[in-house]
């Protein structure tokens, strides 16, 4: 737990603060997705208007209503998704505000740990210096003895070595004492940080699940709209389009006057254009042509 330079506390604290960054970035991501959905909805509305403004002439005209209705429904689907995502952004922002409060409270609670971490760093530095000093004094003491130096110099080296040993022993004692407090405080703070992080991850997953659920529901709705579009196209047969055209464009059901009798048509044939033959029976029924007589 101690680690290099006792920096574990700093790592855990900044990791907690990084949670706020993740929350803000999630809000920005969802906001961007909501903007995309809003723009898509506007684009589908433009397509709907385009379909409404398409030519109403000819037998194909009713098909534009199918395009218009489908485009309107798709526009609503994407607009509804944008609304749900905006609601989600508010939930994320609310969580972000609560997160800041929790972090402020935690910062106050772990102040004691930060202090003992700093004490531990000081004690560790002092211990290292005392150890080096003691080691060097012992080497000096051993060198003088091997060289048969003057007794005065040997005694002087012995005194320095003894003082270094006392200082080293004192540093070890202080380090151990601070280390016990450091371990206790770090255990408490590490547990706090872990609880906060686990809570943060659970909440983020809840928010992401809401995001996923909203998109999934919208995709289901979009699929239903496409299926409806396909069915409407299939159900609108060629004969239906021709009949609707005849009903809308019919000019009457009365037989033409005697001045038209010199025009002869075969009763079972229609007018051929580009290889396509339209049965006169349908047109005759609704009054565009009434040539029997």
Structure in words:
With 293 residues, the chain is an all-alpha fold. The chain folds into 2 domains: 4-236, Arfaptin homology (AH) domain/BAR domain (Substrate Binding Domain Of Dnak, Chain:A, Domain 2); 241-286, no CATH class. Helix content is 79%, strand content 1%. The protein is built from 6 helices and 2 strands, in the order αααααββα. It has a two-stranded antiparallel ribbon. A hairpin with a 2-residue loop joins β1 (272-273) and β2 (276-277). α1 (8-52) packs antiparallel against α2 and α1 (8-52) runs parallel beside α4. The model is unreliable at 264-280 and 285-293 (pLDDT under 50).
Which characteristics define this entry?
endocytosis, single chain, rod-shaped, 293 residues, 2 strands, disordered C terminus, AH/BAR_dom_sf, 79% helix, Substrate Binding Domain Of Dnak, Chain:A, Domain 2, coiled coil, mainly alpha, two-stranded antiparallel ribbon, 6 helices, 1% strand, coated pit
């Amino acid at each position: 737990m101690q680690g290099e330079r006792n920096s574990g506390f700093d790592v855990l604290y900044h990791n907690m603060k990084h949670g706020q960054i993740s929350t803000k970035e999630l809000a920005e991501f969802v906001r961007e997705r909501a903007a995309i959905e809003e723009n898509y909805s506007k684009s589908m509305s433009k397509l709907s208007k385009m379909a409404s403004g398409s030519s109403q002439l000819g037998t194909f005209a009713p098909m534009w209503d199918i395009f218009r209705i489908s485009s309107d429904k798709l526009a609503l689907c994407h607009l509804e998704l944008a609304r749900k995502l905006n609601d989600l952004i508010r939930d994320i922002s609310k969580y972000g505000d609560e997160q800041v409060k929790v972090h402020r409270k935690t910062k106050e609670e772990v102040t004691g740990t930060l202090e003992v971490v700093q004490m531990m760093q000081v004690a560790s530095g002092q211990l290292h210096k005392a150890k080096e000093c003691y080691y060097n004094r012992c080497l000096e003491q051993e060198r003088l003895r091997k060289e048969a130096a003057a007794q005065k110099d040997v005694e002087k080296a012995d005194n320095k070595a003894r003082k270094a040993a006392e200082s080293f022993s004192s540093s070890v004692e202080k380090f151990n004492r601070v280390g016990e407090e450091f371990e206790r405080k770090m255990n408490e703070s590490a547990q706090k940080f872990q609880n906060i992080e686990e809570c943060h991850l659970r909440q983020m997953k809840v928010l992401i699940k809401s995001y996923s659920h909203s998109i999934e529901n919208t995709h289901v709705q979009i699929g239903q709209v496409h299926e409806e579009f396909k069915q409407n196209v299939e159900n609108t047969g060629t004969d239906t389009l021709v009949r609707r055209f005849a009903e809308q464009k019919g000019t009457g059901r009365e037989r033409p006057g005697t001045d038209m009798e010199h025009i002869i048509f075969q009763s079972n044939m229609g007018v051929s254009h580009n290889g396509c033959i339209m049965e006169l029976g349908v047109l005759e029924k609704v009054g565009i042509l009434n040539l029997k007589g």
